[in-house]
Amino acid sequence: MSDSGPAASPAIPTPAPVSKRSSPSIPVTLNEAGLDSPSFRASAVYFADQADAIERWLDGYVRTASKLTHDILGLEETINNYLSKLVPPVGVVSVDHDYTALALKRVGDGSREWWAQVLKTAKKIDTLSVDPVRTFLASDLRNFKETKRTLEQTQKTFDSTLARYVGQSKTKEPSSLREDAFSVYETRKAYLKASMDFCFFAPQLRFNLDKLLVQISTDIWREMKRSRDTAGSFAKYGQEMDRVRGWSKEMELTESVLKRELQMARRDIGENTVASCKPSREIDDYSASTVPFLGSRGSMHVFTQGKSALIMEKQGWLFLRTVYGKPSRTNWIRRWYYCRDGIFGWLVNGPQGVLQGDEIGVLLCNAKPAVQEERRFCFEVKTKNQTLLLQAETQAQLMEWLEVFEVAKKRAFEASVGRDTSLLPGGVDPAFSITPPSLPEFSAKQFDTQVDEALGVERVGTLPIPGPDVGLVARASFDVNAVPPKRSATSLAREEGETGREHAARIMQKLDLHRKATFTSSADNTVMPAPGPTGGIASLISASHGLLPGYPGPTVNQGSNSKPQQGPPIMSPEARPGSLAPLTLAKPPAATVLSRTAVAYSGDRVLTANPAQLMPTAIMANYWGSNAWGQEHSVRISRTDLPSDDPFGPNSPSMKVATSGDGEDAKSPTTSLHKKAISMDAKMSTPKISGPSKDKPVQETFPSNYPTELKINSAQFRLLFPSVPLDEKLVLVFRAAWSSTSAAEKNLPQMTGNGRIYVTSDNMYFYGHQMGLVVAYMISLDMITEVTAAPGRDCDFIFLHLSQDDDEIGYSRITIKTFLEDLDLLHARLNLLIDDLQAEEPMDVPEIIKALIHMEKEEADQRSPSADSWEEVSAHTPIDDGTAAGRSVHPRAEDFAYKSRKGSSRKPFPKFQLPTRPVIYEPEDTPNKVAERSFEISAKACFHVLFGDKSFIFPKLYFERRAQQIAQGPWKSNEAGNMQRIFHFKVTYNNRLGRLREEVIADHQIIEVFSDHVTYVVTHEKTPWHLPHSQGFKLVTKIVITHVTKSKCKLAIFTKVVWSKAPALMKHLVERQALDDASQDAEELAEVATDQVRRLGHHSRTKRAIQVYGNVGLQSQVVVFSPNETDYTRKPLINPRTLSSMLFETGRSFAESVASSLMLWTFAGLSKLWKVVSAQRLLILLLGLSVLTNVTFSSQNSMTWWSERRAASFMNRLGVGPNVMMSKAIYLADLDEAARSTSSRPSWPQDSYCYSTFQAIANGSSIDAPHEDAGSSLSPWGASRATARRLRRTRQKLGSYRHDLVVAMRLVNSVEIEMLRSEWENWLTDENQRCEQVGMALQESFAKTSGSRVDPTKAQFAQKVLSGGDEDDAKKQAERKENLREWYEEYCGSCRVDHDALIHEREGLSMASI
After folding, report:
1. Which of 1144, 1139, 1148, 1131 is closest to 992 using CA atoms?
2. Rounded to two decimals, what is the model's pTM?
3. What is the pLDDT of residues 32-43, one digit of tens each?
């Protein structure tokens, strides 16, 4: 098994292969094509069907138009004969020539002109409409059909090639696998190119079709207008036709820019996708068949190496093993699986879109590699009663899938620990349940029974391959599991173990599902009823739209043999019930057949039971694709809100809400940590199914006067912006194009688009879909400082001027172009919404809706007084410079919107007048002001920031002082009628004896003055527990908030000490310390309030402050805070102070003041002396002292250095020097001594019964036996058995370690012995050679002595050896020769013997080896 990196294979890349681009536009279809997701395949099938329908429609139009022209021109002779017969012949003189003849003549002339115009128009039909349509069919549509055919062929080739590649066995040669991998890679590249071409040309086809149809409509309208007067419908709809033509021109202006951006996105996505799926050329990478190695520590420890972060979620194609037929046969099908938000599920392509299977909670799954499977890279996912055998395409994908299961299970368990399941739909945590699709129309179970058992394994095992007739329409994938049968979505037979009552209830449920189903079999081409529920938003959409723009008609089967719908109902403009929103819907980002069904259900139900999901996976797959791309790429332009990680924020995880009665202490809620796993197919005595049939779906509630058109658009708005809370309602929707203007010093992407603008009471959302690029923006209405408008010929202009106070905005103005909207009405409505933000009493949604509708009714008889006035034009309005951005402007001041707000549209209430001057309030009993701040918000907003139900400023201040278990009580009325709340917290400190002590403190807050919008006075009574005599007084802080101007207030804090029992001594000392502490706390409170106001934003409305910090007195529960220790950098710990410590601090303070006075006097004397001494003398003196100091220290250092150098030189001459080499070595001779322990042996007791018992425990069994068996004869709960196991385990580990050391020591010894033996052999050979030379010298010497002739060279050598000085003494020389001969015979003889033995040993070894 190879431990190499991921085995290369042309796998589909993981999501988000898109490179980061500067433009905020989202190429949704290109992203899906790069992933080859089910959404892309369903969208391609849908648009291909649309292209075929468009071709049939245009071809029929061309034929009928040509026939109409031919037939009309064929009547030309008949018309001429008719005209000739209108005037009486010359011979007829019986008629009156003054009147009757004149009438006939005028009729004849008029008829001749009218018929001539009709014939002229008929002759132009070919030029105006037929020829452009024929050109479009022959060029654009033909090219697109060729691109579609290429996509079909490459998809078929890629699917079949990939199915063959992944179906190969583990035993196949790596070289063959590499060849097949590159073959799949080439087909993948061809398929990717065809997909990118399809996504590139499809938006262009749609754009060119719109441009063509608008051009034909305007040309025909112009000819029709010339043929008659401008009365009637021509005058009524002439402006609309001009605006539609203006919209077409606007789209043409942006065509080149969008096409270039689409081309760049296509190139980036294609390059990244190809690079991510390119196989490796290393042949070793193809020898792997499962994970690199299998350990006991779990898969996470295997896959996290070399990665910067863990994989939180994953989705992609996997092969699933299924069993079907009788006898059972194995089949592998390919499905799109996903694991995110604590659930594991799958998607599949159906004939009408993307369908979803059951979602399994990850805490019910156990994923592990399937090493026994013949295929490569398989793993299994086990639940309680079924096992899914899945196959990934590469080793990297296998490792990522196993890792994401581990991470998802860990995160899901952590999230479920503190979660209250009673708040979830059905009362079941999704991570602990098996949940079917929330909508039956999106369920893939409809296709589980459509299995053709006659198909072979090869045909069924491959992907749905498009045929020659059906194009990209894919077969539905299916599976028949080899596990006990579970309940089918269509079967009505009684299940095993099912009671009669349960069976009857299930039959009713299934029949209801069948009534709502929209799917038919593959052979059924009959017309189906429209999907959707029988009431609610879906019924409104179905009733008001026979065929919504951008959505397919649900009453027509989308198969190739189905006939197009005849005569779709057209929604006329007169049928609109109101102008707050258009009845048509915007184009979805990734359109499928089920996109309209998704919109129909989005407004009627809570679509998901998982709180982590913004929308169900099936809804997202049929609307956005595999990811919610709008949430990832959308530009959110708003002020900085409260940070999400603030432990004292409204959504803080450290906050717990506890219910408590009067007089009861706050108690933390008790939540069971055990989650019960509930499964659809689990057999239980009382079955509980997590599904849509458990609880009635909760609908979004609307006000009673909420218009129908807003309800319809709200359904789509929830899909386009799923993160918007439900309490934020739409109040206005209009169609427009927009562009932005940024500050000169900021380089920001331009905010451009064309689509819909959704306006709520708080924000404005922009959504556009053009040329395959999707944009999604959000700006807060707080940022808009002014709205101006300018009319135009082709379009109208609305300018949103943005605030420049916040540096994070970046944009200075947004220009909105409207085409079909009433400019005056829209301008007035936008001004109404923006003015309402700063109102002291903002309107709620019903009031806003009523005001907006009332403005439309008053428009006919009430015009803006400033519409014709140019005296109040804003300074921000662009000047009419001849460009599209500069036009005449309707100013905002005193306009229709402003007067409408003051009219009768709002409910009557007493008019409140704010004071014209700042309010001044100082408490009489508390004159000591310690802190004061001014804020750019209203007094009411500041009051809610400090004292709202969701404002936790005071718990934060308590926490800074190391208080624990802080409980903030609700506001309640006291006996005096004032609002009051209590803070309970616990403090821990050391008392005088150093012992730890805990004390529970209770502080009170009372609202003494509540003059709304004007003055607020809150008294905060605190217990000074850290001061002496704390039971005898209270520290009172009065917080005063007063009105200054409409959007400005002042915060003042006063403090005092109230004694209930004054001490006889040290009262002033304690009171002064208490006031100092109160002043410090007041400054901290002012700083925290300033920080909260800064986060809220300057000039923020009161409504926003109430939304963020809550109302006052509405909450009835106690909020308990338990933040972590590291949440805040807190102040030093406060310990109680005693009178002695306070006296000591007072004395120390006095001493410090005395010392500071003395230092001041000293400095004064030095300054006086400085004035007396001249500067020159002082400089000379300092220079002399500096020179003397330098000479002294330099001479001392020099003398020391020379002395050390001379001493070192002397010691070196004596041969004594430092040993620079240090060695630590153990030689062979030292082994025995080194092996023995140098430490003193312990003195064991002798003849001790206790020690003998210990020896029996220690040596009770073999030392080599497992340590778990040690002390098995002893008591299993006794300490002796644990001691025996621990001793056995420790001795075994030490013995293993000693064994390793002995093996290493033996290896070192053998190396040293071999080295010695080698050196010995070399030295012995050299010694034998030298002995031979000595022997030769001795022989020559004896020969010379006996008179024999010796070679001069040898004689010279012998003389050199034997010469020992003067040879005049022959006796001594003879003795030397005799000694030398004896030494030679003894020493060299020994060397020869050793050498012969060595040679004999080598010969023996050589023979043994042979």
Report:
1. 1139
2. 0.63
3. 999 999 999 999
